[in-house]
Specification:
alpha/beta, 8 helices, 4-stranded antiparallel β-sheet, Rossmann fold, disordered N terminus, about 300 residues, about 25% strand, single chain
Length: about 300
Amino acid sequence: MTRRAWLLAAPSAVWAAEPKGAKPKGVQPDQLRVPYWMTGEGQVEAKLNGAAAKVLGQMGPEADMLILLVLDLAGDLGAVQPAREALVANLQKLTPNVWVALLRAQDGLRALVDPGPDRQPAVTAIQELGISGRAGLLDTVETAAELADHLLDRGNVRVAVLYVTDSSIYNYREDYTNPVVNSSDGRDMSRRFPEGLVKEKTRQLEARLGAREAPVFIVHLDYKSDRLNEAYQTGLISLANTTGATAVFCRSIAEIPSAIDGVFSSITSLRFVTIELKATKAKQVDVLLSANGPLRHRTRYLLKGR
């Protein structure tokens, strides 16, 4: 697959959510693609649920790559502007084998710029993007992961998702504040656990992302310390970790450039190993990779639909 062919591999239908109960496209019945990072080169060995598994192929930083860069920005321009500058700087440093598709999370996942060798369209779109609307990460992350797996299915290309967000749990269209059901009842559980709806939403997403293969990175520009937002941000960490990626939170504007730089470095050094996955009735599979040198990798997948 060439990078240009992504337009053929991602028809408009992929932007819609899958029918309920549908088998995730990125999880094939006979193979598993595991993201990992290591220094140096060498053959990777794999075990699934403790048993040796056959390695079918490996992709390193020399392989073509598509980054789905999703902007979820609706807050303070003071944090957004340094994020714009850091994104532009990192786009311009990318090697020719890495292309970026620019998307926006507000009002559903929407493509702003298709990937290509010319960075300028994405740079211009980032610089001119209006900052308004509602937070959209929780509403779109499953669709973004679906699209990434769709692209992984189509050929020998690395794929990763990167969300850059300033989202607050109070800025979603859906109310996650778990309002008190009975204000006169001191035993009302919503009074004691106001973060219940937030935790349930992220738990549901975590379960579905556990069956996806492409890593979903998150850079949050504005860490918030109130109880509901801390529950929300903890959920974002779990979502990213579930996919083998990381979530980074900036506690000051000064931290934003280095946070974005670090995540781009992780993404561009991403590797994939494809492992033979034999028929199993297990609901999940634990992965152990080893090589001659330090290695970090995703360790668990849910096996829904098998």
